[in-house]
Amino acid sequence: MEFTAQTIAQFLGGTVEGNPDVKVNTVAKIEDGHPGALSFLAFPKYTQYIYETQSSIVLVNNDFVAEAPIKATLVRVKNAYEAFAMLLQLYAQSKKQKQGIEPNSFIHSTAKVGDNLFLGAYAYISENAVIGNNVKIYPNVYIGDNVKVGNDTIIFPSATIYEDCIIGNDCVIHAGAVVGADGFGFASSEDTNYKKIPQIGNAILEDHVEIGANSTVDRATMGSTILRKGVKIDDHVHIAHNVEIGENTVMAAQSGVAGSSIIGKNCMFGGQVGIGPHIKIADGVKAGAQTGIPGDIKKKGAMVLGSPASDISLQRRSMAIYKNLPDLRNRLSDLEKIVEELKRKISE
């Protein structure tokens, strides 16, 4: 499929700067651009590439100011990154969609499935499950008893949805993810053996939730583990039992949330962030990569870093000092020698 700069600008509500009739049929990173490709510039560190890119069209923010001639045609929009995402979504929707029920898949006689279901080979839909319209369930997926899956949801190969869990509309669950496995509940006893605590709750994903590949969302001991509307979880993330994550919070790879913690809406967590048990985190909190959060964060919009977590500005100052510690140690050692020499001279 080919699109002109003018067509793209009309779709995005942007303006063309350059040749409105230039065409593109693919996308590319701005540093790897080539004729016929569409790229975008949203982050300042990549600005240098716009002056040398071979891409035919580049999306830029309205406030971008060129400091040298640019060969590509520009399409100016309010938010280049968001606009590029919209175009990629349009491109993905234009691709041929999976349809039908493949051989060797299984639907229990008590299950209810909606219209336009795609069910891949060796996928299994259990007793009393309810599957909405336009759902795509890829090969080797397991849907447990009494599970509910909303409209337009996609479940990729080898994902597992345990019994009684609820998946909302327009969710995406990537390959190998597990929703509703037992929470890590064990009680110690006098004989030092740990006794398993039955996990009788469930896990709920509200609408527009995305779960990355090989991530896990544990079921609650009682009640529900809940990921609210619009939550996005990256690959290899663990959400423990009875956790609640607020709307539109995003969490990067290898992060983990311990049991019964409550996270506010619109939070952002970098990779490998660890959140302790029974913690409350306010709305809009941002945590840098590898941050360890052992206690509540009550301030809305707080930005934290380090382990244990502290205000990002304080942590940055501390990190600057850490780098100088070897030199500071040597200077202290020199001062100690001078002091000892002065003491010796005074005592003589």
How is this fold's topology laid out?
Blueprint: E1 3-4, H1 5-12, E2 15-17, E3 23-24, E4 26-27, E5 37-41, E6 57-61, E7 73-77, H2 80-94, E8 100-101, E9 106-107, E10 112-113, E11 118-119, E12 124-125, E13 130-131, E14 136-137, E15 142-143, E16 148-149, E17 154-155, E18 160-161, E19 166-167, E20 172-173, E21 178-179, E22 186-188, E23 194-196, E24 202-205, E25 210-211, E26 216-217, E27 224-227, E28 232-233, E29 238-239, E30 244-245, E31 250-251, E32 256-257, E33 262-263, E34 268-269, E35 274-275, E36 280-281, E37 286-287, E38 292-293, E39 303-305, E40 310-311, H3 312-347
Parallel strand pairs: 4-5, 5-6, 6-7, 8-11, 9-12, 10-13, 11-14, 12-15, 13-16, 14-17, 15-18, 16-19, 17-20, 18-21, 19-24, 20-25, 21-26, 24-27, 25-28, 26-29, 27-30, 28-31, 29-32, 30-33, 31-34, 32-35, 33-36, 34-37, 35-38, 37-39
Antiparallel strand pairs: 1-3, 2-7, 22-23, 39-40
Structural account:
The protein is α/β, with parallel strands linked by helices and 348 residues long. Helix content is 17%, strand content 28%. The strands form six sheets. Strands 8-11-14-17-20-25-28-31-34-37-39-40 form a twelve-stranded mixed sheet, with helices on one face. A ten-stranded parallel sheet has the order 9-12-15-18-21-26-29-32-35-38, with no helix packed on it. A hairpin with a 5-residue loop joins strand 22 (186-188) and strand 23 (194-196). It is flat and about 100 Å long. The model has no long low-confidence stretch (mean pLDDT 93).
